[in-house]
Amino acid sequence: MDPALLTALVPLLAAIGGGLAFLINRADKRRIRNEDLLIAHLEQQIKEKDRQLRRKERELRALKADATAWREQLIENDIRPIPDKWTELAEEPDAN
Fold first, then answer.
1. Are residues 74 and 81 in contact, defined by beta-carbon separation less than 8 angstroms?
2. Against a cut of 0.85, is the pTM above it?
3. Cα angle at 29 between 26 and 35, to 5 degrees?
4. Torsion sign, CA atoms 30, 36, 40, 45
5. How far apart are the first and last CA of the chain?
6. In whole angstroms, what is the distance from residue 74 CA to residue 18 CA?
7. 81, HSE (Cβ side, Cα atoms, 13 Å)
8. Residue 19: pLDDT over 60
9. Region of poorest pLDDT, from 9-13, 15-19, 68-72
């Protein structure tokens, strides 16, 4: 190859390489930022679901306490509640 051509190609290839490195770095930073935003969003959703679960558990305990009190009132007044026993809730299988 002609030395003048090599002298012209080296800076051109260096500029192209530098431009590609800049674009790849920029894309990586954007990807990392988007991943961080997604993780923060998912963590927020998990916290909200945990709050909802705790609220539903409190509601269930309150309803069960009320139902137990009403059942006991029936029994105290010689009224046989139907069903005689509490219905057991089925366990959900593990999602593993």
1. yes
2. no
3. 140
4. positive
5. 64
6. 83
7. 16
8. yes
9. 9-13
8 A C-beta contact, residue 86 and residue 92: no
SS3 content of the chain, % helix, strand, coil (to 5): 75, 0, 25
Q: What is the pLDDT of residues 31-86, one digit of tens each?
A: 999 999 999 999 999 999 999 999 999 999 999 999 999 999 999 999 888 877 77
Using 50, 70 and 90 to split pLDDT, how confident is the model at 94? low
Residues 6 or more apart whose CB falls under 8 angstroms from that of 29 comprise none
DSSP annotation string for 10-52: HHHHHHHHHHHHHHHHHHHHHHHHHHHHHHHHHHHHHHHHHHH
Q: What is the per-residue pLDDT for 11?
A: 86
Instruction: Please give the torsion angle defined by the CA atoms of residues 52, 54, 58 and 64, in that order, rounded to the nearest 10 degrees.
Output: 90
Angle at 90 between CA 73 and CA 49, to 5 degrees: 95
